[in-house]
Amino acid sequence: MITPIHYFSTFATLFLVSFMGYYTAGKVKSSGDFAVGSRKMNGYQVSGSIIATIVGGASTIGTAQLAFQRGLNAMWFTLGASLACLFLGLFMAGPLRRAEVDTVSQFLAGSYGVYAGVAASLITSVAIFIHITGQILSAVAILTSMFHVGMTWAVLITVVLIISYIFFGGFMGTSLVGIVKTILLYFTLFISGWITYHYFNGITGLAAAFPKEPWFNLFSDGIYAGIAQGFAMVVGIVSTQTYLQAMFAGKNEKESKKGAYLSALMIPPVGLICTFIGLYMRAAHPGIMAKEALPSFILMYLNPWIGGITIATLIISVIGTGAGLTLGIGTMINRDIYLKLINPEADDRRQLMVLRTSVLVVSILAMIMVFGNVNSLILEWGFLSMALRGTTIFIPLLGAVYFKDRISPKAGLTAIVAAPIVSVLWQVLHISNIDSLYVGMITSMILLVGISAAGRKSKTGETG
């Protein structure tokens, strides 16, 4: 049972972390400070921003839930996120940081033209907005199930927390919250992991509690399925403004890479401990609902003071993801739409106002969207968002980084616009069981290569 101590500990922690978001306001003097920390972030701050957004409900509650159902296979989400951060560090951090831009759309515009950048910004803003809706639903689920807060109050609390994390401090706020969240998460999960280890009587007790198959097989769903999950995470993260924004914010290429590598190192332990908790709850309390594995463990086995901090950390994890995504949209609205199409002469003060207004408006719109879809499935929002982001950005971005001189601007613009349309239609019409993400990416690749080749052939013919 949740106790008054749980309530006090939880809301005190939430208040302190929200205050930290407000505290960073004093460091924000320009739109550059708000959007990318004026490119002064060290590796730890870059990593804090990445972890603040990646490690959310899926990495914690969702991982424990899946482990309760399937065992070690639940590790794939956090392993995939780690692989994505490693990919960012190895292949993307250098070119992105050297470009001296604030958004991925600006980077694409450098290769494919202004209209391609604007199109990418509009489509991915919609995709990220969809993901924000899912994150708010996740936070609402925690507040309503654990604290019995009414739906309306749960949504309002969630949106207020999102705004408090970024409205004042922007990127600096999300980075600081991410660092604090990581410290709290490791502190509480270390205690939880030790308790789990103790109750299992060590690794031998864990091994004796379950048969090897499927519980201790990382590829219990098949090797193809495991690889596909990891690949999907790489595509999703590399195609999202929020994570790439962290690469833009490093004070140099080395620090951006360091932040990506630190994130790759720090994320898997979170998934591992949550997996062990899910397994323990399956062994000790097989009658509970799978989604209640981690929340129930917190209430049953942790000291109320620690339990409250842990609950707050989970809420911060979910809301931090929503906050980082909201900042990503606000940055694209200001840099790619307002400055390009509405007011190219805007001074820095007005840009900062637009950034903060965008954060506020996006948060309010997401709240309205949630009120209209309170009974929808959280994962459905995630799948749709992934399809839009991945098909719009991933292949054109790789082309702009590594094949800039071989891909025509017309091909880039066409791929950015047409591939997500094909992907969404494929998913809506249920044409086959092939994932719409892969269909969209193949479409994008065919358009990039085909139109570019046709353009080169045409130029060769004219020359001849």
Q: What brief labels describe this structure?
A:
Sodium/glucose cotransporter, mainly alpha, about 475 residues, globular
Task: Walk me through what this model shows.
The chain is globular. It has 20 helices and no strands. 81% of the residues lie in helices and 0% in strands. With 464 residues, the chain is mainly α. Helix 6 packs across helix 18 (378-402), helix 7 packs parallel to helix 19 (409-429) and helix 8 runs antiparallel to helix 17 (348-371). It has one domain (4-377): Up-down Bundle (Sodium/glucose cotransporter), CATH 1.20.1730.10.
Chart the SSEs and their pairings.
Blueprint: H1 4-23, H2 31-36, H3 43-54, H4 58-70, H5 76-98, H6 104-112, H7 114-147, H8 151-166, H9 170-199, H10 202-209, H11 212-215, H12 223-238, H13 241-249, H14 253-284, H15 293-301, H16 304-342, H17 348-371, H18 378-402, H19 409-429, H20 436-463
Helix pairs in contact: 1-8, 1-9, 1-16, 3-9, 3-13, 3-14, 3-16, 4-14, 5-12, 5-13, 5-14, 6-7, 6-18, 7-8, 7-16, 7-17, 7-18, 7-19, 8-16, 8-17, 9-14, 9-16, 12-18, 13-14, 14-15, 15-16, 16-17, 18-19, 18-20, 19-20
Following the backbone from N to C, one meets helices and strands in this order, namely HHHHHHHHHHHHHHHHHHHH
* Strand-pairing-aware structural class: mainly alpha
Under CATH, the homologous superfamily reads Sodium/glucose cotransporter
Per DSSP, the total helix count is 20
Task: Give average pLDDT, whole number.
Answer: 85
- The share of residues in helices is over 70%
Q: Could you say what the CATH architecture is?
A: Up-down Bundle
**Into which percentage range does the β-strand content fall?**
under 5%
Examine the coordinates and then state which fold CATH places here, giving the name of the CATH topology.
Answer: Sodium/glucose cotransporter
Biggest β-sheet description: none
> How many extended strands?
0
**Global geometry:** globular
